[in-house]
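Entry for the shared binder. Reason: the reviewer on the internal report wants the predicted structure included alongside the sequence.
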Amino acid sequence: MMTETDPDLRAVEATLFASDQPMTVEQIRGYVGDSVDVVAALTQLAAHYDGRGIELVQRGKTWHFQTAADLAHLLRREREESRKLSRAAVETLAIIAYHEPVSRAEIEAIRGVQISKGTLDVLMEAGWVRPAGRREVPGRPLLFATTAGFLTHFGLTSRKDLPGIADLKAAGLLDPIDSAMGEMLFAGEESDGELAIDENNA
């Protein structure tokens, strides 16, 4: 186990601290060298910072430092206006999250209605959805998937942390009509109401 003064541990810590973007293990290794056990260092650093004012968190395949969630409000000097996602955008985001990679036609088949190009544009501008290649079928439709920013914004380590339909029902987020939609999505899920886009992505 590395000590707090171990040069390898400190190198990984400094690399992450200096980066303005989340980093993968491979990217960190590019700075600290192949001889460093980056995974072990990250695990130890995450434990060290757990419960402190800043935390080292994993989001998908990337790692970054962030302000502890319960202290984020201290750093907001003024309340910012939040844009609201339309119900169509909420449903589209949920379908993408639970079924990715998924095409526009597949999203429309699950929702039962067409979606406007603007709906996907809003989700991509928010940094939550990205193009994910094309399906190798006639017409080669464009596929969509969620981003690391989506995981970070909603505090998820991976898509495996997405709530199941039972979780959403227990939280009172699905009314009877939404429950029927949820059954169809699970194959997928939707959240009743609007999701706020935090411009700071705190």
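Summary line for the report: The first strand starts at residue 23 and ends at 24.
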